[in-house]
């Protein structure tokens, strides 16, 4: 079993807050992590809202929760029980000791809306992403084959740990089918599964590009841009797609203001594009954009909760893939799919525009080395060195 980096942070949040919401896509390992946390709490109660028996047990939530007030309660797939949040508020107010509830959910947007209305000031939020490089590789002795496998298969544990690449590919195809045909309808989504699969595949083809709803609408047979935006919201809310907003700095330049879109898991991206092996991937035009999205997620999942992440691009061509702002400090990150990366002139111009103290180039290189006085090239397993809390 792979120990998740989030486990220690989840434990700390449970020591401070009456309720913790652990968000993440289906099959990412939330239930496994929750059971690890529950194992340290005698008498813990684990309920799954996909099970009719557990939903029946919570048919009268105020009575049930009050009767189990002395127990640590885990409620899995809580988005299937939206009425539960109004019952949690008075129960938490009756006993505000920390570590009472752990809520697991797969639809972040809806959960955040529901809990912000009912549980403001009573709940902490954490997100469990697919497996990261830091959870799979030993930074002291990194295995490049393991890195390549993680990039190809993605970070869903059952895909990553599959017996071979073919088994991993089949698992991801099954995951996509189940997600579209069962999970989304179970959340109340009424868009045809085939329509959403086409849209998801279109996003895979434009990985890392600026989102153009009108253009995608034409490709979807004339769908309105508002409809396309709604489809994007669905995939963002279910944590399958990252919408990366531009960093709108006051630099006196004409800035690009459309967001970029990335499929958050590289393995799902490859499955949608029919790429089952490393050979398939390396010979495909999407390889560079796939690597970029893979590295974006390595950065995003390790950021401090109060950090801001965006990209910077001007109409004149200044550009940097990621800008991190944290407590008054800005750091730039450029991502290159090259063993000898050479940033463009636009990268250096972006450093000047934003007056960055430090910038990094993340690339598939074996070791760190400097490009200039304030720009270093880093291997992806050293991504923590590019983050604001690295000092």
Task: Please describe what this structure looks like.
The protein is 42% helix and 17% strand. It is an alpha/beta fold and 391 residues long. It folds into two domains: 6-127, 3-Layer(aba) Sandwich (Rossmann fold); 133-390, no CATH class. Strand 12 and strand 13 form a beta hairpin. The longest helix is centred in the middle third of the chain and has 22 residues, at 165-186. It is globular. One of its GO terms (molecular function) is ATP binding. It comes from Azohydromonas caseinilytica. This is ATP-binding protein.
Summarize the SSE layout with pairings.
Blueprint: H1 6-14, E1 19-23, H2 30-39, E2 45-48, H3 52-57, H4 61-67, E3 73-76, H5 84-94, E4 101-105, H6 108-118, E5 123-127, H7 133-136, H8 144-153, H9 157-160, H10 165-186, H11 193-205, H12 213-219, H13 225-237, E6 241-244, E7 260-263, H14 266-272, H15 278-282, H16 287-300, E8 308-313, E9 319-326, E10 329-335, H17 345-354, E11 358-363, E12 369-372, E13 375-379
Parallel strand pairs: 1-4, 1-5, 2-3, 3-4, 10-11, 11-13
Antiparallel strand pairs: 6-7, 8-9, 9-10, 12-13
Helix pairs in contact: 4-5, 8-14, 10-11, 10-14, 12-13
The ordered H/E elements are: HEHEHHEHEHEHHHHHHHEEHHHEEEHEEE
Poorly predicted ranges (pLDDT <50, ≥5 residues)? Answer: none
Mean pLDDT: 92
Alpha plus pi helix count: 17
Q: Largest sheet, if any?
A: 6 strands, mixed
The computed structural class is: alpha/beta
Radius of gyration: 22 Å
Helix content bin: 40-55%
Oligomer: single chain
Strand order across the largest sheet? 8-9-10-11-13-12
Protein name: ATP-binding protein
GO molecular function, one term: ATP binding
Keywords: ATP-binding, Nucleotide-binding
Pfam families: AAA_14, DUF4143
